[in-house]
Specification:
alpha/beta, Arc Repressor Mutant, subunit A
């Protein structure tokens, strides 16, 4: 069995900390190695606990999430960091990207999707919330989008082949929530808003064979 993904969580709200810990500890492949309630506690904890992924609030006392990421990346660049926030402010998202974050996710995300988020980020994917004003765009592809991971390519091909989320879930031995989370990331990377847009992209780029 592969080593569990080590996660450090940080938020100044005890209930959110407890909720994150409870959700993640239910997963056999994820280990919570520490928690912090102030931004200033995060960089020293990263040094001591050596997490693979840090999940932290954007707004915390001491240091905010972006400042934490800058410190973490300066000393341990391989650690992945994801910001949790209630804000959809585009400038905050851009600041997180520039600091080296692997994700910026709204706190309204379903608790069931948090483990999938951790797995994706640990595997090298990124996940950045698209503000509502931008999500309703024309679906044109983002030429600056990062390449799809192997798992995302597999799921895109399955979608192009007409398979349902349930069928993909069964085929890949993952939950439907995980498949949906991958699809969200795929749509963001391709600059599309739905399955039909993703299927069109797959055919145009040779990721699905026509009959």
């Amino acid at each position: 069995m592969e080593r569990a993904i080590k996660v450090l969580i940080a938020d100044d709200h005890p209930l959110i900390l407890q909720g994150l810990r409870r959700t993640l500890e239910e997963c056999d492949d994820i280990e919570v190695v520490g928690e912090a309630r102030a931004g200033s506690e995060v960089p020293p904890l990263v040094q001591r606990r050596a997490p693979d992924v840090v999940l932290m609030d954007l707004r915390m006392p001491g240091l905010n999430g972006v400042e934490c990421i800058r410190e973490i990346k300066a000393s341990t660049p391989n650690v992945k960091a994801v910001l949790l926030s209630a804000s959809e402010d585009r400038s905050a998202i851009e600041e997180a990207i520039e600091a080296g974050a692997s994700g910026y996710v709204l706190k309204s995300v379903s608790a069931l999707d948090v483990p999938a988020l951790v797995r994706q980020v640990a595997a090298g994917s990124t996940m950045f919330h698209k503000p509502a004003a931008e999500a309703s765009g024309d679906g044109a592809a983002d030429t600056d989008a990062p390449a799809l991971t192997d798992r995302e390519t597999t799921i895109l091909a399955a979608v192009a082949g007409g398979k349902t989320t349930k069928a993909i879930s069964a085929e890949l031995w993952v939950s439907e929530h995980t498949v949906k989370f991958h699809l969200t990331n795929i749509y963001r990377k391709l600059g599309v808003s739905n399955r039909s847009g993703a299927v069109r992209y797959a055919y145009e780029h040779g990721l699905a064979a026509r009959d």
